[in-house]
Amino acid sequence: MAAAVKAAVREGEYASTSEVVREALREWTRSRDG
Predict the structure, then answer these.
(1) Cβ distance 19 to 10 under 8 Å?
(2) DSSP per residue over 2-33, as a string?
(3) Under a CB-based contact definition with an 8 Å cutoff, are residues 21 and 5 in contact?
(4) Biological process (GO) annotations (predicted)?
(5) pLDDT band at 33, cuts 50/70/90?
(6) What is the pTM of this model?
(7) Rounded distance, CA 34 to CA 30, Å?
């Protein structure tokens, strides 16, 4: 998982690893809230 996060940052999809984590948490929260 860490490699995927680093790759997303390296490829320019996100500015930082913390941005990836924040987005993942948003998506997770959305999926739980239905």
Answers:
(1) no
(2) HHHHHHHHHTTS-SSHHHHHHHHHHHHHHHHH
(3) yes
(4) regulation of DNA-templated transcription
(5) very high
(6) 0.79
(7) 6
